[in-house]
Amino acid sequence: QVQLVESGGGSVQAGGSLRLSCVASGSAFSIYAMGWFRQAPGKEREFVSAITWIGGNTYYDDSVKGRFTISRDNAKNTVYLQMNSLKAEDTAVYHCAAVPASASGIVVITKAESFSSWGQGTQVTVST
Description:
By secondary structure, the chain is an all-beta fold. 0% of the residues lie in helices and 51% in strands.
């Protein structure tokens, strides 16, 4: 099982930036992909971005394309989410998630069901 710990959330004014980090740890784990999801109060959890561990293919929800950038540092088992030009509607708890390399079946990188390990989340609040 992979343990995930997020950091970097906080409060920022609209137009500002934040950088989220997520460190993965555990015994004998290997990762296929890591991603970020967010959940605002009263709303369902939604996909934000994901990246494959080998190859570094990236995926973004349309709402964050051009503003957010996902990256990873394989040596540090860490994934980052650089968030620029933040908007009030980006306010949410952001969760890091991982798809293990051992995952069977079809992996849909934008679906939460494909991710088996989740972090506790970090709050991002954007004020106007």
